[in-house]
Structure formats: structure tokens, C-alpha cells
Amino acid sequence: MLTAVLKGVAVRSSAPPPVLPPAAPHHGLRWSLLCAAGLLVLGLLAGAMQLPLSWLAAAVGAGLLLSGLVAGVSALLRSLSRGVLLRRISAVYEFDSAAAFLTDTGGEVIWLNAAARSRYPFTDTPQLSAALTDYAAHPSAVIRRLSARALAEGVTGEDVVTRAGVLRLQVIRCRRSALLWRFDLFLERSSLARGSEGISLPMLMAGRSGAVLYANKALRDLTGGRPRTLEELIPGPSVGSGGIIALNAISGPVQAVMIEVDGAAERREIYFLPLSSLPAIASLQGLEDLPLALLRLGSDGTILASNTEAQQMLRLTPGEEINASALLDGPGRPLRDWIADVAAHRAPARTETLRLLRASSPDSFVRLTLRPWGEAARNGLLALLVDATEIRSLQAQFTQSQKMQLVGQLAGGVAHDFNNLLTAISGHCDLLLLNHDALDPEYADLSQIRQNANRAAGLVSQLLAFSRKQTLHAEYLYLQDVVRDMTQLLSRLVGEKIRLDVSHEHGPTLIRADRRQLEQVLMNLVVNARDAMRAEGEIRIRSARADFEFARPMGEVSLPAGAYAVLTVSDEGPGISPQALEKIFEPFFTTKPAGEGTGLGLSTAYGIVKQSGGFIFVQNAASGGAEFSVYLPIHDRETIDIPVTPQIRPQASLPLVREGVILLVEDEAPVRAFAARALRLRGYTVMEAEDGQDALELLSDPALDVRLFISDVIMQGLEGPAWVRIAREQRPEVPVIFISGYAAETFFDVLADMPRVNFLAKPFSLADLNVAVGAALSDQEDRLS
């Protein structure tokens, strides 16, 4: 039955039909039992009136019939499930250049792609072990080992150095009983020999672990055989491409220039240019087709000869008379001067990274190594070029990540200091407002101060969002509900000339995020789209669901397998230039004219999405304009416990601690003054301390009845968590409220093991402080009662 279902799938596919195992014998037996049970029931029911015992037999037959039906339906469902899996695998891997097999856990092949069918023409029922016979002495052992690892870890792989070559095996668990295998034969010695055996330069192929996979005839003759490892061949310290090393030759150490050609990630392709052969090599005769770019340069930089690889890299025409300085951008000084200095032995012959001037991309680089010989002023120099574009790109990415990290740390520190100032400003403003009613002339001025302090707090929040150090109040919510609630506000935001098209391509998708921050992300993306169009047009907001059974590459990021809620915002503007796309999420980067943008909108959105465990991407849509996509993990409503938000009693009913003391520890005097006065107005008795050491001295009095600690986290000397731990050795039941301008997530590791801890983020208002204190004391009363 499984065979029939899978064959039906194959017929509908344009690819050749997959090879499938025959139906298992127990399927036929199951249906035979089913038929026999049906006949037994019919026969016995017919004579039931004459033989009372037949009713029992009829019941037994009915049970057999029901069991057979259940087993048959179960087998059908399994077959259909496998059919769905086969269609998905075929759509992705049918035309993969590597051989791909779908097998059960025993290695029996269920499906194989076109590459596997052409490379491994099975005659009987295909077994994976038959495909591995040419590569491994014990294929069954390899299959068992990798199958066990894949079933346990989800994905695994290894390189197998075999008699026929080097085979990369990758195994992916698709279901509990199905595995996907990829065989990538990235090095066949026979084909390699055809290309490199006749080269006069010694060369080898090595794995990333240093094992030598292949050595050509020139290297074998030089060393007396094939070395087993690079360390055996080059015993000295490791050097980069272009460096001089000492080869362990059969006649003794041989000085040579080591050149590594960028190849597949699984192997290293290395050539050795003996220094003694440089004059002969410089003519480039016989080296035209070497996969290594070589130039012969005059002492003034004129290109005297070039091989095919160099001509392709530099976009030279054969016989073209040109100076290297017209093709390569110099290393901080004119290239002619550097070449002349090396030729005259005034400068060392080191390797430099240069920019290609004739390349299609302005960010194309090569590493150039110059080697003079003899009288270099007369003979010239040999130039070796290696593509360094990818290395330079990785260096730029690393530098950028460091810069972003430093900016993030700076943003977090600045936000912390501003939050202290804003706490004092807004707090004392709240205290003044207590003494003025709405009709008071000063009430409007105080309200303006309060509102602008809140606006400043919003800007600080954006800095913290960029640095991913803000406090997120994550909750379970439906993405579609957030978009619907924001639609009216966004419509007013974009204006009358721009249309807002909102659609939902899937039912409700449950995510976990800070609602306020998610609204900020949506607003920032819509504002960015509005500003990009400048005139009439349409902004499209889409919510959808994306399910990835396997990890999905998205540019330089790989999305893990799983279900995602997707929020897409696209516009009809001119799009984003390739140069701007690389920097679009950097802080303070903006494509708007001077004075029209802060450069924080998209970097803030990026920080919020990443802190929420999601991903954000940008691309230019095919129809024009830019398209931003946010991916947030979907949560299953039936498998999670959505916490109930605790109900805080109204402020009027919050308890007043008239018999106990609140210990307030804060090193910022304005913040401490506001908090202390606010608590005293509520009837609390407050003792103040500037730091942790002062707090411990106050607590040394055993008669002091302290009901609550309120402490800053970061202070000089003893920090908040440190002094609280010491104090709780004698007062273990006292709750604590930590306050800080940094986010709570910053201190998660420090506070995770501390019981009865609450966190209040700065800047906080008078009401925020009263509610936090009342809630902490209410919890303590409930525990003690």
C-alpha cells in the first residue's frame, strides 16, 4: 500500500519515478485477516438464532474486523504522511548536484534524486550500503554511526577519506523513522590527477584538519612520497599564503613560497614555489593554465607577462602593455613606489591587500606577494595574486560587529545616566503637581515639563532598544490583533495622499513579545515607508505564517526550522541602493536629507526584534520599493501556560507601613531625594543610605524593623545585589525592589537566584513607585498571614 501511494506521488511529479521498496508482507496478511474476520461475522450472524454460542463467535469476529479496520486506516495515514514528506524532499533535492537519498532508519532507500540515480544504478531493492561500498571498507558501520547521531541531534555529517576520494556525508532527520542523506564527492583523485599531475610546481590538497588528501608528482618527487600531514611536510611555525616556508624534502629543507588558493570549504589547495626555481618560473612558460594568478613585473611595475588566471582576475587582454598601478590600488602609498622599493631591496617582500580597479564590484580585493630574484632591478619581480574579497568582507563584518557592540555599550551607558536625570525631573514634577489643580496657572507649565520628560524617556528607550538592553514586558499576543489595533493610528500617520493596505493571509498567530515595543517596530517601518515615497502611493502591511521544516538561508543568516509569524511592510518608493542596504540597520545611518532623520528608527526596530528572539530582513521588491520582513517564532496556544496578570489593589487601598521602615539605598542624590519624599508622603518611614556599606551599617542595629529594601543596582563599592545578600543573612524575609536605568535583562544572571525580588526600571513616576512598593508589601503580608 505504501508503494502504491508513493508511486502515485511520483507519477504526478515531472521527475523520474523514485525507487521504492516493495510493500511489506505483513500488509497483505493484515488485509487477509480483515477479510476472514468479515466472513466469519457474516456466517455466524446468519445462524445466530439456532446457536446461542454463535453470538460469542460473532462478537469475536466483530473485534477482529474492527482491529483490522483500525490497522488499515493507520497504515493509510502513515502512507499519506510519507507521501507528503516525499513531495517536499523531491521539490528541494531532486536536482541537487549532490546525490541525495531518503531512507528508513535501517538504511533501506525510499527515494533518491537524479544525481543518485545516474551515479548509482541499482538493479535490485536499493540499499544505502551499496552506494557506500566504493568509499568505505565497512559501509554498514558508517550508516549505523551516522544514523544514531542524526536521530539524536537532528543533523550530522563527516568527511570520509576513502579509496576513491574524499566524500562529504550529511544526514538530516526528517521524521522519527526517515533520514535524508547527501553524498558530495568533492574530490576525486582521478580527476585531480588529470589536472595537476603534469604541473611542474609541487602542490597538494589537504583537509581542514591538516591531513594531506592528495600530492601531485612534483611534490612526491621532491619529498620522496606523499606526506601524511601538513605538519609533517612543514614542521616550522605556520605562515599565511605568500610566506616563505621550509619544505621537508628528501634532500633536505627547501625554501619555498607557499601559496594557498581559495577553494571549497572542506579542503585547502596549496602550491609551493621553490625559491631556487623563481628565475625559471618567471617566464611563465608552461604555467598558463595553472589555477594561480602569476605576473612578471618590471622594477617600475610594468606587466611583462601574465598567465591565464591573472588575466581573468585583472581583466587583462593577452599582450596588453600596462602598469600594475593602473589595475591595483596601492597599500596606502603609490603602488609604483612600493614595487620599486621591493625591487631595490629597500622594503621587505611582504604580502599586501590591494583593491582591484577593473572589477565589477568596488569591494573586490587581492593579496599581492612580490618576490624578487637576482638583480631585481634588471630581472624584475614575480607577483603572486590571490583573491581576498571574501577575507576582506569577513574582516569588514568583524570590524562592523565590534563597532556596533561598542556603540551599543555607549548607548546603554548614556541611557543609564539620562534615566537617572529623568527620574529626578519627572519625579519632582509629580510632587509639584500634587499641590496644584488643573485650574492653577502653573499646572499647565508643570504638565509641559512632565510631557517633555516622557518624550525624553522615549528617546532613551530607543537607545536601549538599539543596544538590546531595554526591559521588555513580554506577553503572549496575536500578531493580527496588534496590527488591527494600530491601523487607525497608522492611517492618520501616513496622511491622506498615501493609502494603507492591510491584509492577513493566515488565521491568528500567537507570538510572545512586548506589545508596546512591537507597536514601535510597526510604526517605525511604516514611517520609514512613508518618508521613502514623499508623494502619493501605497504602503502594504501583510501578516502571514511561514513553516520551515528545515533551516532556511536568508542572506547571511540562517532561519532555524520552525513556525514563524511574518509581518511585512512594503512601499512604492525608489527602493534602497546596494550600498545603503548594507548599513540600513546601523544607528544614526539615514538616507534622508540632513535634519530630517535621526537614524535611530530602523536600528531601534532591529534591536527590538532581535531582543524578542526574531529576525528582520530588508530587500528591494521586484515590483519596486523596499520591503521589510519581520519573523517572530509562533507559540502553540495548547502547549503553553499563559500567566494571569496579577491584580494590583487600587492605590488608595495599598498598605501603609507605619510601624516598619523602608530602607532606600541610592547613590544619585536627586533620585534618592524624590523617592524618599514620595514614600514619606504615603506615610512610610524611610531611612536613606548612599551606598551598600552605609546600608549595612544602618542594619547593624538589630532593633531596627525593616520591612522593605529599595536599592539601586549599580553603585560605587558594594553593588545592590551584593549588600542585599549580606543583609539577608540576618533578615532573610525582607523583600527588595531593585531600581536601575539599565534593563532587568542585564542583571538576570545576578538576580535569578534571589527570592522575593522585584524590579522597577528608571525613569519611574510617583505612581509607579507607589504601586511597586504597595505590591511588594502586599505579597509579604500574604506570605506572613
TrEMBL record:
Top EC category: transferase
Catalyses which reaction(s): ATP + protein L-histidine = ADP + protein N-phospho-L-histidine
EC annotation from Swiss-Prot or TrEMBL: 2.7.13.3
Gene3D superfamilies: 1.10.287.130, 3.40.50.2300, Histidine kinase-like ATPase, C-terminal domain
Residues in Histidine kinase domain copies: 413-636
Organism, as annotated: Falsigemmobacter faecalis
Domain Response regulatory, residue spans: 661-777
Residues carrying 4-aspartylphosphate: 712
Ranges that cross the membrane: 31-49, 55-77
Stored PROSITE patterns: HIS_KIN, RESPONSE_REGULATORY
Record has Cytoplasm as a keyword: no
Protein name (database record): histidine kinase
Keywords associated with the record: Membrane, Phosphoprotein, Transmembrane, Transmembrane helix
Signal sequence coordinates: none
GO MF terms, alphabetically ordered: phosphorelay sensor kinase activity
